[in-house]
Structure formats: structure tokens, C-alpha cells
Amino acid sequence: AGAPSYPVFTGRRDGLTSDKQTVDLPSPSISWDASMAYFKSRGLNVLDMATLLGSHSMGRTHCSHIVDRLYNFNKTGKPSPTMNKSFLSEMAENCPPRTKKGQTDPLVYLNPDSGSNHSFTSSFYSRVLSNKSVLEVDQQLLYNDDTKQISEEFSASFEDFRKLFALSMSKMGSINVLTKNEGEIRRDCRRRN
């Protein structure tokens, strides 16, 4: 998909169960400060945060994760004032304020530029700089001098983004490593021993 390769260490212990209650991800609507605190609490720095959010250059999200940006930003009853107006209209067409009974939560691309091509590109950062981020947490990159500068650099140099993404992914692989009797080292990573 265009993403860089990076080392994944073998011999790591996997958990014995997997369920959505144990997923530890921040809200897609958190502030820059809350996002930075989340990343720091996991031993990651501002460069890691700005780089890892670039994984949103591909993939999709449910509208329920962005309706607050489109219709009730910070409980104002209005859309996010920083969102590009034409992009806001485009997203509002795809994401109604609420789903009707029996209707599934629609999906939108995190980066409409790569869309169904599922391409890993630096256009994500160009969209941040143009106020066209789908998720509020991504748009927050523009509101801090460090992350704005990183976004400008990655928008201009895809290769810099790729190199640093590989390093940050490797670093993230060291978070919450299971030890001693926790979990197991699987013979086949798709199923428990």
C-alpha cells in the first residue's frame, strides 16, 4: 500500500483473550493536549504522535466518530469552525446527524484522497494543513507549532514520513509487552496454542 517495512520482533507473548473492551485507543475527538498526554503516557513523543496519526492516510471510520465535528462541535450545536466549508458539506452528505432505526452507521474514508485505493500517502498531511481532516484528533496537528511543522515537512517529503513512520511503529511495538506467565508465545500467530 506504500507504507514502509519495519522490523517486528518475534518471540513476543500474545494475550490469551481478545475483545473490544481491552482496546486502548483515545477518542477521535480529543484535544491536542489530551492526545499528547495519551502518547506520552506510553513512552512516545510529539514526533511519534504526529507520525503515527499519519496511519490515517488510509482506512475508514464510522460516521458516529465524526458527527460531533459536523453538527455539535464542543456541544455548540454547530460544526467545527476550523473545518474547510466545502469539505464539511461533503462529509455532511455522507454522515447524517443521526442514523434512523435499523440503519447501519455509515463509513467514510479517513483520507478521501486515497479512498478505495487504500494507499499510504503523505496527502493526509496536506489535508491537515488545508483543514480537511476527517477526525478532530488529526486536525489538532495544525494547532501546535511542533506538530504543524512536522505536518508541513511530511506533506513536502513522503520519504521523511515513511522513514519516521517505520521508527515510530517499531517504538510502539515495545508498549505493554507481556512478560513471565502473561499470555503465550504462539506457534501460529492466528490462534492460541
TrEMBL record:
<feature type="domain" description="Plant heme peroxidase family profile">
    <location>
        <begin position="1"/>
        <end position="193"/>
    </location>
</feature>
<feature type="region of interest" description="Disordered">
    <location>
        <begin position="1"/>
        <end position="20"/>
    </location>
</feature>
<dbReference type="InterPro" id="IPR010255">
    <property type="entry name" value="Haem_peroxidase_sf"/>
</dbReference>
<dbReference type="InterPro" id="IPR000823">
    <property type="entry name" value="Peroxidase_pln"/>
</dbReference>
<protein>
    <recommendedName>
        <fullName>peroxidase</fullName>
        <ecNumber>1.11.1.7</ecNumber>
    </recommendedName>
</protein>
<keyword id="KW-0349">Heme</keyword>
<dbReference type="InterPro" id="IPR002016">
    <property type="entry name" value="Haem_peroxidase"/>
</dbReference>
<dbReference type="Pfam" id="PF00141">
    <property type="entry name" value="peroxidase"/>
</dbReference>
<keyword id="KW-0479">Metal-binding</keyword>
<keyword id="KW-0560">Oxidoreductase</keyword>
<keyword id="KW-0408">Iron</keyword>
<dbReference type="InterPro" id="IPR019793">
    <property type="entry name" value="Peroxidases_heam-ligand_BS"/>
</dbReference>
<comment type="similarity">
    <text>Belongs to the peroxidase family. Ascorbate peroxidase subfamily.</text>
</comment>
<keyword id="KW-0575">Peroxidase</keyword>
